[in-house]
Fold these 2 entries.
Entry 1:
Amino acid sequence: MRQDPDCIFCRIVAGQVPCTELLSDDVALSFLDIAPLAQGHALLIPKEHYQTIDQMPPELAAAVLKHLPALAAAVQKATGCEGFNILQNNARVAHQFVPHVHFHLIPRSAGDEFHFNWPAGMYPAGRMERLAQAIRKNLP
Ligand code: 5GP
Ligand code: ZN
């Protein structure tokens, strides 16, 4: 299994650093974030070390992601939150500070302190279809 001895999440998987565990199976681990954006902020990770999600084998991604519905329902029931965000940051430019793939499950409630800046834009004529073609060409 790919592990990085310098990675904090690999050290959690190896039992060298404690965590407040929510679930664990052969390939996935979930635990509470140590610095929560809201009470119940959970992380779901593959046990194997991959830096960004595009590097993961799709079968492994599926085996990790299958836990999200039950985990989200359990966090909602336990916290009483009204909604939640699932965030997955890739690379420092996208606010990834721990270089081991992780999904944030962040409980949300009206008036909470977690705000997005969502600067929605527009495509110039023709650009949207050209971009879609380029993306489709690069899909397996
Ligand atoms: P990122 O910005 O990389 O997407 O988020 C990394 C998350 O990991 C942060 O929310 C941070 O609080 C959490 N985190 C970092 N180190 C630890 C740790 O040792 N234990 C736990 N439980 N969470 C951690
Ligand atoms: Zn790691």
Note: Residues 4, 7, 9-10, 49, 100 surround zinc ion (ligand 2) (CB under 6 Å).
Entry 2:
Amino acid sequence: MTEQTVADLPMKKPREGEENGAIATANGGGCISSVIPGWFSEISPMWPGEAHSLKVEKILFQGKSDYQDVMVFQSATYGKVLVLDGVIQLTERDECAYQEMITHLPLCSIPNPKKVLVIGGGDGGVLREVARHSSVEHIDICEIDKMVVDVSKEYFPDVAVGYEDPRVTLHVGDGVAFLKAAPEGSYDAVIVDSSDPIGPAQELFEKPFFESVAKALRPGGVVCTQAESIWLHMHIIEDIVVNCRQIFKGSVNYAWTTVPTYPSGVIGFMLCSTEGPEVDFKNPINPIDAIENQTKSIGPSLKFYNQEIHSAAFCLPSFAKKVIEAKSVN
Ligand code: SAM
């Protein structure tokens, strides 16, 4: 992996006595709430009136970068946990579901992906999954916060293993600017592994960003972006679907999967292709289960993704189907 920017940020160790006390949680709005001593509760205006809690054994890292609060704690039942601005980004126990699905849903839908761009994804988990595809020749990742990269390498080596692949180039910067500068048609696939639209990721959910993604993709190229929860964020999903229908003239689909430690226990993905060779996301043509498609010596084997769950991911409950497909008509 080559690094385009080297700016080592100071890393603070946890303050004395915080290990077993109440864990203050911060959300994008910066308000702090203390909760049951020894538990972390995920309180955010993105899911009012509810909060998922994890029992904390020990806080391992707490820091503040130029962009967000960064925390790592050892949980009692989900392994180590990465938290940004009070929102769980990944846990060792269930990160496989998200990283594998956000990566293999797009890459298994096109033949021989060669050049892939990851926006966000600073923990390295998506890189680990992209690296499984032997057809891939070059992987760019643009992550805004170097502290996330450094913290992930220190505390989540099985996730950050993706950075060890020689095909990876790390760009530390804003994904919006990176895509604006990307040459037209330069990528087969773009994967937007962003945090929620509060804080540095806000613009990654807006129309101009999707337009720059479409420009950077080749004809028949694909994008997969983190697309929130059908239980909590149908209003956000509606806007994303409307924008994507206007911008991507290939196919536009919504898929979802289960991740126990994400709010409401599910997370969705927007999958779009640009005009060009047809892409049928629901029927994978480039099965990663097939050993010959896999690069040798990569991280742990697949734990979650398979072809059946790929196709099943596009089956939606009626309340979501009605909204998403209606947005497809007009
Ligand atoms: N799986 C998580 C989820 O679904 O919320 C996302 C994990 S990943 C850690 C999210 C990354 O997006 C963070 O490292 C954050 O720093 C990065 N990010 C947020 N806004 C960004 C931007 N404008 N450009 C590049 N990276 C960004």
Note: Residues 4-22, 26-33 have pLDDT under 50 and may be disordered.
